[in-house]
## 1
Amino acid sequence: MYVTDEGDEVFVIDGHIHLWDASEENIVHEGGEQFIQCFYDYHTSFTPEERQWSMEEYRKYGTERMAEDLFGNAAVDMGIFQPTYLSEFYEDGFNTAEDNAELAEQYPERFVVNGTFDPRDGEEGIEYLEELNRAYDLQGVKLYTAEWRGDSKGWRLDSEASFEFLEKCSELGIENIHAHKGPTIRPLNRDAFDVADVDDAATSFPELNFVVEHVGLPRLDDFCWIAAQEPNVYGGLAVAAPMAVHRPRKFGEIMGELLFWLGEDRLLFGSDYALWNPDWLVETFMDAELTDEQRDEYGVELDLDTKRKILGENAAELYDIDIEEKKTQFRSDGVTDEFGLADHYADGTSPAPADD
Amino acid sequence: MSSNPSAPDAGDDAVGATDASDPPETGDVEVTPDAATSASAVRDRLDGVTDPELDTSIVELDYVDTIRIDAVDTDADAPTGADADSGNASDDVFVGFTLPTAWCSPAFAWMMAGDAREAVESLPTVARAEIELRDHMHEQEITRGINEGLPFEEAFPDADGGVESVRLELDRKARTARQHDATGALLDAGLTRDQVAGLTRDDLDFADAPADRVRVWVRDGTVAVEADAAPVEHYLEKAEATGVLDDEHSELFRTPEAEPFDGDDVDLVRKRTRLAGVNMGGQGTVCDALNEARHAEDRPPLSTFSG
């Protein structure tokens, strides 16, 4: 839990984390090496110098370090795993639901394991989704529409095949559809992360929530316009949040736009771990402010209540997490024991006890 | 020319620059003494080439590392006739450039390389421009494709068609962002929302206005308001490039989807055009940061995967 200087508590659900393996032994395609190299440039670009990892650490960090980075070093209370398979690039996958579950099984109350699907896998893909659902009781899926598969360099969320999978999600009660819509690196001439396909999918499946990860940067304009019209479209802040470090003004502008078009109830914080560490990131986000000029321009606030929603409450809403119940539970769970957090969750740390 | 584009740049000190008064802002500049083309002329042309995603000049973004201008022995090389139609197209120009990341979209890199070649070759003294993209995952395909004048889909056999639709989309965004500045200038000058929404290309008069100003005719051409010309001209450039100013629809400004709008919608359209600019600025920030990381002294080597 993050506690402000005034003693206000902020329950932190990191909405976008991975346990990945980009070790050289696991890479089977040049794309796999390019992928991790690109991540590393993002890492060093936005991470304060003294907190940067070495490339070797970054390739594969394992469960122990991850648990410590989230709970020991940072104020994270819970994390949502977002798998990215990239099976064509990595022998055993880059960041699979099964890998993520390694840590989640160790600390089940602290993690949400999301599944995934790829409509190009057809019937087998449906079976895999069902299998994941049985294993992890899925509440969400992370979709990487630009993933390579043979000759295909991507797929669309609004395709007929994708709709079959979304119907399956709906049937299984998997309500949160996280679509990765980030920077274009591949494929070649197409914009694989175009956000237009979210529009039709969100309209067609009003019972599902569509979280556009990385808020579609660099398609923020298209994303906001779609989200303004589709109440079940959300924005995941991974990649946008680190800008608060070196480019606070730019970060303020982006937050201003997001709060204006989507409002404070539809934005989710994510560190994108291990792209970035939540310790400095949560701190930076909590310290971020809009300038007076931005407040006037956008007519919105980035105050404590807003930050509390973005850092935890909004994700709690989507994932049916009862924050107060969790706080009680966390007084004595495995993480608390291991990282000595008993005081952290002790009764009465709140200035006013919750009476609801 | 020395025709060795891969020669290391370290020793490329500017020699015999014909325009010594003009500092080489864009990295190494080398001009052979008898060249008819000046480095500043080449830079000016390159300045008009934009990173299509950021709508910012590649010179301003500091992508251009090397410019080399070589006078070619016209007796030996130039075919008689067609090539020399503009008088003295006798120089070869080499331009080397690097993007913020090796993973910058190949389509965007292709557009910049192609536009750079076209821009430099539009100089009457230039016979041929050779462009080299450096440190990019597709540097070879792009450098070869652009210099050989190939279409994108031939340079990239596994691409799914050409780059034109991507360019159109980026142009649309650039037009939208530029519209924000243009409408802002006109509202600042005192035009009402209805007047802004109702303007046509014919209402703008640059020729008779004072320098750097544009005269905007409103109230059926009975009253002229003067405004800052630059943002309006800047907008017109992209409005024309994206074909929104045609005979069928005379309205000067459009929604991002290229629809005309009325006075009541001006505020909403203004907010949407603002968003297009914020998006470009946000992406520019990311590119900028990646550029810095990539050139950091202790960065580990780029991919050497060869499996």
## 2
Amino acid sequence: MEFLLASGIGIVTATGLYLLLRGRSFPVVLGLSLLGYAVNVFIFAMGRLWLGAAPIVDAGPDVADPLPQALVLTAIVIGFATTGFVIELALRSFHDGGSDHVDGHEPGHAPGHAPAAAAPEAPTPHEPQAGRTSA
Amino acid sequence: MHLPILPVLLPALTAVLLLLLGDEEARRPWARRIALASLLLGAVLAWRLLGLADSGTLTVYRLGEWPAPFGIVLVVDRLAALMLALTAAVALPVLLYASGGWDAHGRHFHALLQFQLMGLNGAFLTGDLFNLFVFFEVLLIASYVLMTHGLGRERLRVGTQYVVLNLTASALFLIGMALIYATTGTLNLADLALRVPQVPAPEAGLLQAGAMLLLVVFGFKAALVPLALWLPATYAAASAPVAALFAIMTKVGVYALWRVHGVVFGAEAGASAFAVQPLLLPLALLTSVAGVLGALAAHTLPRLIAWLTVASVGTIVAAIGLFGTAAWSAALYYLLNSTLVIAGLFLLAELVAAQRGRMADRLEPCSPVRQPALLGLLLLLAAASNAGLPPLPGFVGKLMLLQAASDHPWAVTVWAVVLGVGLLTLIGLARAGSILFWAVRPELPSAASGASPRLLAATIALLGMSVLLSVWAAPVQRYTEAAARQLADRSAYARAVLPELGGPAAESVRPYRLPQPQPLPLGPHVTRQP
């Protein structure tokens, strides 16, 4: 069981890291979720592996560690929320920038010169008059 | 006495109220008023907690009255109270500035600002490693949206990278935390401080691996050197009030580093004592140097300030890495000043950029600004304080640091780096200032109007508060020294958080393990509570 669990976590982590290092946002997001799954199982396993142990305290001698189970629950919820957000952000970035490359522009093109399908130039951070019209 | 949890609940409730209020143009004045009232109340709360902590008591708030290693605790000590007060001091001017128009450039600015404050306050208050993670996520999720506030291609591009990097760091945080839990059986910081020295040698390697992973995570949030490259692009792309607010976000990383690596894995940690010390000081000094070199190479004003943020973090972490009460006191004093000055500089940068027409914040000669004397003097003041010229607080902080380093084996290096970085900071800001205010092309049309009083007031408030730090240097220094001493006193912290210390109830969060572990051998400083 130890070998199976350890190699499982290892393979999923390695796959996640590989995808995370890709250049397009979709594989990167996929890599993040895989890494998240591996981390969740890892936390779970850090309560040590138990066979036939009760998950909550009862009369029996063996009780599995309940704390990592509580931790992993929180981590799963947070992981879902952030993954949802990063997908939405990547889509928006693709829509506005015209490229799903993580650098925001296609390799070989200079930054800021997206393909013809790009959205019109969006306001720059310090557009004159921005933020002081209604002061 | 529910005072310690109110700094977390108040922004949470305000944020929900603001979400319910909606985001229509007509209701924006009300949103501003509610947010301002909530922030003022939060500042009063922070002030009360500061007074409470200053008396030397450690206020421990047990959620649901569960005893400490099992339940969640919030702990108010001098450091946490000061960080809360600093958060309020930065957030108020930022809100005032954003109400000048930036909050209309995107949706739900005020609600997100409140969520960010909730995460910040929670991270400073929590006495538990996992809750630190949870509050990190709360403040990060708010920061993701604030970062892209106002949208635009550049912000989305940088924002995506920022989010992906932070999610990866969060995964590492969980792995490090799980390793620490696996070897010690607890995540409560006070309990950890007692248990880390007792971890037997074969498992200590695993524990230190966990500590190192946390160093990577906190170093990433604080922007320590190999992990600092995300910061300049992100902060320079964010809108001015958001970048000013983010000035305190890097300090959360510094704070966590302090709590975990300074205290839990600091002195008295047995086999794991000073686990990160060989890395911390060299990395911090490198960060300082890299930051100031980046500032010299920057071609826009916000980028220059963002690099200076990196440099100032390097100085603070170097002081933490010196491991001593005097050095920690210097770190805390310098942290207060650099946060206020950098937040003020980010706001000032936009005021200047808005009056420069086409070139905006690029460091190239352009039309003269409308209010050269006022903005120029403000930049001079901020530059002098950031570089560490007397009598400004940056000087006091650096002097304290130099004194604290004087009998350390690395003294010469620390002195050289701190003084050299100060000089280069001054050169970088002087270059920027002379281009912005002197190398003008008067033939180009000037801006139509000067900055509005509200935006100016917010900027001046931040820089003014940093000057007040110098005026009240003696009481502030007395407070930071007491905070550093309190931080190093692990047994007092443990006694306050774990009332049943040594009793059967506080044995471990794994009391059901068979066979039962031996009773906790108390360290020399730890006394049994009757």
